[in-house]
Design a protein that fits this description.
With 82 residues, the protein is an alpha+beta fold. It is built from three helices and five strands.
Length: 82
């Protein structure tokens, strides 16, 4: 099944989202090196808190392109970029 086309409400990007984990990889490594249990807890939290973000600007608010609001954003952003 193909991903649905989305529109970023911040920059006007039209396309697929990117998944990004919350938190810091560096903190995760330090916790694993120093303390086993906090490292496990932090890793589980990071993997369960992935967000769908715009690959262009990182905004988390993307809407389907085939909705009335999505079509309106595409028209408005397209005109402002020309």
């Amino acid at each position: 099944m193909a991903k649905q086309q989305l529109v970023c409400t911040m920059c006007g990007y039209v396309g697929n989202y990117k998944k990004k984990a919350k938190g810091s990889f560096a903190v995760e490594v330090i916790l694993w090196l120093l303390f086993l249990l906090p490292g496990i807890v932090y890793s589980v939290w990071r993997m369960s808190s992935k967000q769908k973000v715009c690959p262009k600007c990182g905004n988390t608010n993307m809407i389907p392109a085939d909705t009335p609001m999505g079509q309106k954003l595409i028209r408005e952003m397209g005109q402002s970029q020309q």
